[in-house]
Write a structure and sequence with these properties.
This protein has about 180 residues and is mostly beta strands. Helices cover about 10% and strands about 55% of the residues. An eight-stranded antiparallel barrel has the order 1-3-4-5-6-7-8-9. A hairpin with an 8-residue loop joins strand 1 and strand 2. The N and C termini lie far apart (about 70 Å).
Length: about 180
């Protein structure tokens, strides 16, 4: 009988050991090695389809090869969990078929959602002119940040060479300076 009680206690103790760890499985751990603070310069703006926005006869997926309007776009993540994002892009007037470079700067706060080693997920939130919060998610791998927009507009040309918007995914890649 003693042997049966010992065996039963061992089985119960083992079972409790397994169940006590199960709640940790869904927890995202943040490693202190993840370094976020710094300046990240835009190096690629990749679209679903190639465009020849600059009309030089060569179409590209990376829109930075099609226009200098994106040059010097950057995001600065500060150690105090604030950020400044200088967004440079192309503004299209589809009615006129024209385009112009556009610049906008936003500031807000960022939160590290999770990370291991040099990989992380960062949410950056700012308030738009309408007073609504906008959150942008960045994926960090090594010294690169990637911002994905699944269904958005990007500059293109119509059959007559007029500036228009196309719809699709856009991947923006920033490299730490």
């Amino acid at each position: 009988m003693k042997r049966l009680n010992l065996l039963l206690c061992a089985v119960v103790a083992t079972g409790l050991g397994f169940t006590s760890c199960s709640s940790d499985d869904d927890t995202i751990t943040v490693n202190d090695d993840v370094q976020i603070a710094g300046t990240y310069r835009l190096t690629e703006v990749n679209t679903d389809s190639e465009t020849d926005f600059n009309q030089d006869g060569t179409a590209n997926l990376n829109q930075m090869n099609e226009s200098n309007c994106y040059d010097n776009s950057e995001i600065i993540f500060n150690a105090d969990n604030t950020f400044t994002y200088e967004i440079k892009s192309i503004l299209v007037d589809e009615t006129e078929g024209t385009s112009a470079c556009n610049e906008n700067t936003v500031s807000g706060t960022w939160v590290l959602q999770g990370g291991v080693g040099s990989t992380a997920i960062i949410d950056a939130t700012y308030e738009n002119p309408n007073g609504s919060d906008v959150t942008i998610r960045f994926n960090k791998e090594g010294n690169e940040l990637t911002q994905y927009s699944l269904l958005t507009q990007y500059p293109d040309r119509d059959m007559n060479g007029g500036a228009v918007y196309s719809w699709g995914s856009v991947e923006m890649i920033f490299t730490k300076q």
